[in-house]
């Protein structure tokens, strides 16, 4: 819609307006447009603040503690949703236990079923952006809708100006030929005006709504549920608000940006014991395309869906490091067989290879989940370890699980991976 | 018995892990509970442990502090369309580096000699501070060795 509007604007009104008023108009429009696209891309591709799933040890420990707290559970039944209460700033907040991620969610976090992750300060899942909006990308999202509303208002205003000016002109210039005189009444102009009108109102409305949310330091989630509204009770107030509108705004938009907690470059370890993860958090994106035929297509497809989010550190022992519950991989041994012969002949950083060969001797068993064609586009970009955004275009890569795996086995490798992790989290 | 970090990995086996959970009473800021876990009762002095956690809490508070300098950084970043982060690190990242150094130092000086190992919370998604308790392989008679599936070097020294 955005693009259509922009093109209508450019082709119909721009030439006229630029000669009549000033050439600055399309220039400003162009800048605004690029800004909008920039923020949109940033919102889509940055990590909203995903909480990695708990490691098995943590989960077990938590379960134990919950069992102790509840008394012995009656075997066989699914226990009721577990909650913990915390008092924050005088308000009682319930922390819920997330069964998928096996953690107690921090306050304001929520589990997004579309992305299948818990997200910190969860606002909402935006289909237009194709990503959750959470703590880390809320400011980009806000800038996106704000600039978009400016852009739409801008376009709308000038389209109207154009129409008015033209119709004024025809009033004076009766002698003019029909075709230019009919220009203001062409469908293009009307269509763009109508489209503009509706978009302007909806986008401006949305911006206004989010401005309100920011100033009161609430999330869309909280607002919809009415968590802190006065209707619930006199004593109900928002414990996270700083009390001052200005402070709230600043905190949300200009506050420090915490690094991403997920490792986008790792593998998800299957449960077979012999596999070694990549070192330094740099993945090896599978084999070349021709060899993908060797694997069972189904399994390859399925496994490629769970790409990108796992180990930061290598796994030296035979630990199946991740209880990836949604990684069924039936008949893994069969897949390992043919897949094992897949060579890793793609742009992997050479440093990680010798590490593995020396430490594990299992290079050929590296899980080649990403051999599917769909991910080929990632290979050229991922190899040199770009510090910037991860352009994972497909929603699939986005929406699947982020496992942080860290069973560091060696200090040096571990250090590297931490460094890698910190560097990665510059997104 | 006193172990160095290297020795620990080689000669000890992982007995169990203790998790120090987050403390949300201040809100969503990253703080950890200073409650002393029972399993560490015999391993380390309460005060040392509390001091470690308090220092870590202090570091995290510093990282997330909202003040003049963080605003400046945020506005500067916005003005440069966030390209500035290709050249420099955010304040938060700088503090994270300090934290990992501190943890490594603590491990070397205090925890490894007592057969314990701290894991940087960053590796656990900032959910917990994981403390691995090791037992001497040779002498691990009474204490049951926990999950043997965990690698013996697990937990990492930062």
TrEMBL record, chain A:
Q: Where in the cell is it found?
A: Membrane
GO CC, sorted alphabetically, is: endoplasmic reticulum; Golgi apparatus; membrane
Q: What class of enzyme is it?
A: transferase
What are the protein's UniProt keywords? Acyltransferase, Membrane, Transferase, Transmembrane, Transmembrane helix
Per UniProt, residues of the Palmitoyltransferase DHHC domain are 94-225
Q: How does it sit in the membrane?
A: Multi-pass membrane protein
Fetch the InterPro entries from UniProt: Palmitoyltrfase_DHHC (IPR001594), PFA4/ZDH16/20/ERF2-like (IPR039859)
Give a yes or no for keyword Transmembrane helix in this entry. Answer: yes
- Reactions listed under catalytic activity: L-cysteinyl-[protein] + hexadecanoyl-CoA = S-hexadecanoyl-L-cysteinyl-[protein] + CoA
Q: Does the keyword Transferase apply?
A: yes
- Coarse class of the primary localization is membrane
According to the UniProt entry, its GO molecular function terms are: protein-cysteine S-palmitoyltransferase activity
Q: Name one GO biological process term.
A: protein targeting to membrane
- One Pfam family assigned to this protein is DHHC
- Stretches that traverse the bilayer: 20-41, 140-165
Q: What is its EC number?
A: 2.3.1.225
Domain topic, free-text comment: The DHHC domain is required for palmitoyltransferase activity.
Family annotation (PANTHER family): PALMITOYLTRANSFERASE ZDHHC14 (PTHR22883:SF28), ZINC FINGER DHHC DOMAIN CONTAINING PROTEIN (PTHR22883)
Family that this chain belongs to: Belongs to the DHHC palmitoyltransferase family.
This protein's name: Palmitoyltransferase
Which species does this protein come from? Stercorarius parasiticus (Parasitic jaeger)
Q: Which lineage?
A: Eukaryota, Metazoa, Chordata, Craniata, Vertebrata
TrEMBL record, chain B:
Q: How does this chain sit within the bilayer?
A: Lipid-anchor
Per the UniProt entry, what are the Gene Ontology biological process annotations, in alphabetical order?
A: protein targeting to membrane
Please indicate which superkingdom the organism of origin belongs to: Eukaryota
Q: Where in the cell is it found?
A: Golgi apparatus membrane
Record's compositionally biased regions (Low complexity): 139-151
Arranged from A to Z, the UniProt key words for this protein are: Membrane
- Region Disordered, residue ranges: 137-158
User: Does the keyword Ribonucleoprotein feature in the UniProt annotation?
Assistant: no
Q: Which InterPro entries match?
A: Golgin_A_7/ERF4 (IPR019383), Ras_palmitoyltransferase (IPR051371)
Does the UniProt entry include the keyword S-adenosyl-L-methionine? no
Q: Where is the Golgin subfamily A member 7/ERF4 domain?
A: 18-130
Q: Name one GO cellular component term.
A: Golgi membrane
Family indicated by similarity? Belongs to the ERF4 family.
* Stated name of the protein: GOG7B protein
């Amino acid at each position: 819609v955005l693009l259509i509007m922009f093109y209508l604007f450019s082709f119909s009104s721009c030439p006229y307006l630029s000669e009549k008023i000033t050439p600055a108009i399309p220039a400003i429009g162009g800048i605004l447009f690029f800004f909008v696209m920039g923020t949109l891309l940033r919102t889509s591709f940055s990590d909203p603040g995903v909480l990695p799933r708990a490691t098995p040890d943590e989960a077990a420990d938590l379960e134990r503690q919950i069992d102790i707290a509840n008394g012995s559970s009656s075997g066989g039944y699914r226990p009721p949703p577990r909650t913990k209460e915390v008092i924050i700033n005088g308000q009682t907040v319930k922390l819920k236990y997330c069964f998928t991620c096996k953690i107690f969610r921090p306050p304001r976090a929520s589990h997004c079923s579309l992305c299948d992750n818990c997200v910190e300060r969860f606002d909402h899942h935006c289909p237009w952006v194709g990503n959750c909006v959470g703590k880390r990308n809320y400011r980009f999202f806000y800038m996106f809708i704000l600039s978009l509303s400016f852009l739409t208002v801008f376009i709308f205003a000038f389209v109207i100006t154009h129409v008015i000016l033209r119709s004024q002109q025809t009033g004076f210039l009766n002698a003019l030929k029909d075709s230019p005189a009919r220009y203001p009444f062409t469908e293009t102009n009307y269509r763009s005006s109508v489209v503009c009108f509706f978009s302007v109102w909806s986008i401006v409305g949305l911006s206004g709504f989010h401005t309100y949310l920011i100033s009161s330091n609430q999330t869309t989630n909280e607002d919809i549920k009415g968590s802190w509204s006065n209707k619930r009770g006199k004593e109900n107030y928002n414990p996270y608000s700083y009390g001052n509108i200005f402070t709230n705004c600043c905190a949300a938009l200009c506050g420090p940006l915490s690094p991403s907690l997920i490792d986008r470059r790792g593998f998800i370890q299957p449960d077979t014991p012999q596999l070694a993860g990549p070192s330094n958090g740099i993945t090896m994106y599978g084999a070349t395309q021709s060899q993908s035929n060797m694997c069972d297509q189904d399994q390859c497809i399925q496994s490629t869906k769970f790409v990108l989010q796992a180990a930061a550190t290598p796994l030296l022992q035979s630990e199946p490091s991740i209880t990836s519950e949604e990684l069924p991989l039936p008949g893994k041994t069969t897949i390992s067989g043919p897949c094992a012969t897949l060579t890793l002949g793609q742009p992997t950083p050479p440093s990680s290879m010798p590490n593995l060969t020396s430490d594990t001797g299992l290079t050929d068993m590296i899980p080649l989940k990403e051999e599917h064609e769909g991910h080929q586009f990632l290979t050229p970009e991922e190899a040199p370890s770009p510090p910037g955004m991860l352009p994972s275009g497909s929603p699939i890569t986005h929406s699947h699980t982020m496992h942080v795996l860290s069973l560091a086995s060696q200090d040096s490798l571990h250090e590297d991976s931490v460094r890698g992790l910190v560097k990665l989290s510059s997104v | 018995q006193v172990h160095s970090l290297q020795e620990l990995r080689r000669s000890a086996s992982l007995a169990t892990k203790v998790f120090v959970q987050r403390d949300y009473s201040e809100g969503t800021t990253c703080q950890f509970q200073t409650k002393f876990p029972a399993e560490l009762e015999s391993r380390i002095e309460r005060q040392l442990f509390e001091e470690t956690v308090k220092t870590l809490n202090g570091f995290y508070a510093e990282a997330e502090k909202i003040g003049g300098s963080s605003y400046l950084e945020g506005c500067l970043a916005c003005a440069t369309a966030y390209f500035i982060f290709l050249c420099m690190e955010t304040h938060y990242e700088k503090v994270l580096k300090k934290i990992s150094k501190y943890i490594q130092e603590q491990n070397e000086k205090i925890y490894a000699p007592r057969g314990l190992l701290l894991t940087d919370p960053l590796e656990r998604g900032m959910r917990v501070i994981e403390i691995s308790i090791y037992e001497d392989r040779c002498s691990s008679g009474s204490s049951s060795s926990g999950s043997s599936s965990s690698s013996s070097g697990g937990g990492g020294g930062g």
